[in-house]
């Protein structure tokens, strides 16, 4: 009888351990998916940037940003600061040497929230 009791206790212990393991994995999965959501909303997405670029920039810049376009210069590797200043205000960062001295490019301040995505696309390898 005591042996049966200890086996029963052992069994109960084991199952409760198992349950704990399941709970832990559940929370792990939740944390990971929360993190993924965070990256999706806060991070930058080169694929989204590509769509924004094709929709708003290739009338003047080349669809391949490494090459000069019909009107605008090549803009591959543009920094976030350059993009933000040029798109929002038509100006350049301090001490930056513009590729052209013209001031043809129209302001597109409505694209301000897309700059992180544009930057990710324009700096992708
Ligand atoms: C109407 C034509 C036109 C459109 C549309 C346009 N650009 Fe431009 N862009 C230019 C021209 C022309 C220049 C050269 C400077 C000037 O004349 O403003 C330029 C310059 C730039 C520069 C500075 C390059 C350097 O290093 O000197 C960046 C960065 C840039 N464009 C990004 C963009 C992005 C991103 C978009 C789309 C959101 C865009 N442009 C849309 C015509 C355009």
UniProtKB/TrEMBL annotation:
Assigned keywords, A-Z = Heme, Iron, Metal-binding, Signal
Enumerate the spans annotated as Cytochrome c domain: 44-125
One GO molecular function term of this record is: heme binding
- Cross-referenced InterPro entries: Cyt_c-like_dom (IPR009056), Cyt_c-like_dom_sf (IPR036909)
Question: Do you know which Gene3D superfamilies this protein is assigned to?
Answer: Cytochrome c-like domain
Give the signal peptide range.
1-21
On the tree of life, the source organism's domain of life is Bacteria
Q: Which protein is depicted?
A: Cytochrome c
């Amino acid at each position: 009888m005591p042996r049966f009791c200890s086996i029963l206790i052992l069994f109960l212990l084991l199952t409760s351990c198992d349950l704990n393991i399941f709970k832990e994995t559940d929370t792990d999965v939740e944390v990971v998916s929360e993190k993924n959501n965070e990256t999706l909303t806060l991070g930058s997405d080169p694929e989204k940037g590509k769509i924004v670029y094709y929709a708003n920039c290739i009338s003047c810049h080349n669809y391949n940003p490494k090459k000069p376009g019909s009107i605008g210069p090549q803009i591959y590797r543009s920094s976030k600061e350059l993009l933000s200043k040029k798109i929002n205000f038509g100006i350049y960062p301090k001490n930056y040497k513009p590729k052209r001295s013209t001031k043809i490019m129209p302001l597109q301040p409505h694209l301000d929230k897309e700059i992180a995505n544009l930057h990710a696309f324009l700096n992708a390898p």
